[in-house]
What does this fold into?
Amino acid sequence: MRGSSDKIPVPNPVQVIARAASILRALEGEDAGLSLGQIAQRVKLARSTVQRIVASLEAEKLLIAASPNGRVRLGPTVLRLAGSVRSDFTATARPYIEKLSNELHETVDLASVRNNHLVFIDQVIGSQRLRTVSAVGESFPLHCTANGKAYLSQFSEDEVERLIGRSYEARTPNTLTRIGTLLVDLRAARKTGVGYDREEHTLGICAVGVSLRDLFGNPVAISVPVPTQRFEKQHSHIAARLLATKRAMEAGMRSMAA
It folds into this structure.
């Protein structure tokens, strides 16, 4: 018989949060969802513990049912929170891309990477009379854009092939449409840290781009598109300023995380 001073252990609130976070991470990218047993195996917790935490996450719409037989997946609240994070990063990056645009007098684009394409999330329009402008929210392929190539250059050749395949749509006569020629370009980008688009996406426009990660590890990219007639004289200077901007942003994000 228990004495009156005996108490049932109460879970540490910090531990509960950590466990909930591990469950959310286990479901990342699982569009078809996972069963409670699969989640328990991945996060190395008892199924009963997973069941309790999942029920709480479902009540907050952080998880939703993915099938009638008990599978769950990430819910709409997570999507709303992710959208807020992207907005916060845009605000964080804005002073850096404004400064870069003022230095170069050129348009600067900020993009996030979504699987096998880029989505522009912000833009500072340059002061030059002849300038390039793209719509925020517009989607671009990886294989023929400067920022896309900068992103791809972080991967091995096998990973590039798995992500975008071996042959690609020709946007212009200059587009690299086969993996062999693209990989040559990516090797150069890997050495220099910058990717180049030489009229490969749009005739009359070239670009320089760099890739980095936001505070949460999500891939993002910065690019400077330039009319071809100005590109040859300016691309080395643009590349140097882009790399300096990338270093400044990364240092700023490290200080924010400290």
Confidence is low (pLDDT under 50) at residues 1-5. Helices lie at 13-26, 36-43, 47-59, 76-104, 146-152, 157-164, 179-192, 228-257.
